[in-house]
Write a structure and sequence with these properties.
Elements: H1 2-27, E1 32-37, H2 47-55, H3 58-62, H4 71-79, E2 84-91, E3 96-103, E4 106-110, E5 116-119, E6 124-126, E7 137-139, H5 146-158, H6 160-165, E8 166-171, E9 177-181, E10 187-191, H7 196-213, E11 219-223, E12 231-234
Parallel strand pairs: 1-3, 4-7, 7-8, 10-11
Antiparallel strand pairs: 2-3, 4-5, 5-6, 8-9, 9-10, 11-12
């Protein structure tokens, strides 16, 4: 009987302490906002911008009880920003509001009436006031044609050789594409965005041979649009 009484008393004490702690936690105010950017990225969105999205008004977050703050709503506000890929917002036991931010990654900039980026997933994103991305510039492409050119942009972004050399992409009226190189003046004609693996393989083989022959400056155009061929035009 005594054992049951002791156990009952212990449970009552735990419940009382839990209720007291829970009540204090609810009454505790948020007194600090900490922002952390996931992965090392260029600053397309900065801490000040995130703070505005988080609180709009400093008093709104730092002076309200935890029970009022709906974290999912805060996350949705952050995730709706066009520079943010995802966020994770949580509260610490010390009353700190923390936000982990993963920015979107642009892989090309489209030179349109209103310029915009294309990100690593193929979606458009606006230019940043904080930072200008060092990515290839795309010409004569509208938002409607982003899906068409995206496989080529993705190929350039993932291939170290192309990433090093390609600075521009041009689309003509037929929907054929040309590449502008960083060092050499000749254009690389891709044609339609298809059979990219074969075309890039042929271009790399041509480039290495011409580099050994010291003949890269002789060409005006290098066409890859014909099956398993590299057709060159001399200056």
């Amino acid at each position: 009987m005594k054992t049951y009484l002791k156990f009952g008393g212990l449970m009552a004490l735990i419940i009382t302490l839990f209720a007291f702690t829970s009540n204090r936690n609810k009454e505790r105010k948020i007194d600090k906002v900490l922002i952390e950017f996931i992965e090392e990225q260029d600053p397309y969105v900065n801490e000040s911008m995130v703070n505005k999205l988080l609180i709009q008004n400093q008093d709104r977050v730092t002076n309200v009880g935890k029970e009022i703050l709906v974290l999912n709503t805060v996350e949705r506000e952050l995730d709706s920003h066009k520079m943010i890929e995802r966020s994770d917002v949580y509260l610490t036991v010390n009353g700190e509001l923390r936000a982990l931010i993963k920015q979107r990654t642009p892989i090309a900039r489209v030179n349109a009436v209103t310029p915009f980026y294309v990100d690593v997933t193929g979606k458009t994103m606006p230019l940043s006031d904080s930072y200008s991305a060092h990515v290839p510039l795309v010409h004569n492409v509208s938002e409607r044609e982003v899906g068409e050119v995206f496989p080529l942009l993705k190929k350039i972004q993932r291939d170290e050789f192309l990433k090093k050399h390609v600075v521009g992409i041009y689309r003509n009226r037929k929907g054929h594409y040309e590449l502008e190189l960083r060092v050499y003046s000749f254009k690389v004609v891709i044609g339609k965005v298809e059979s990219l693996d074969s075309k890039i393989k042929n271009f790399k083989a041509f480039y290495q041979k011409a580099l050994r022959d010291k003949s890269l400056d002789k060409y005006k155009k290098v066409s890859l649009q014909f099956s398993n061929q590299v057709v060159c035009t001399i200056k």
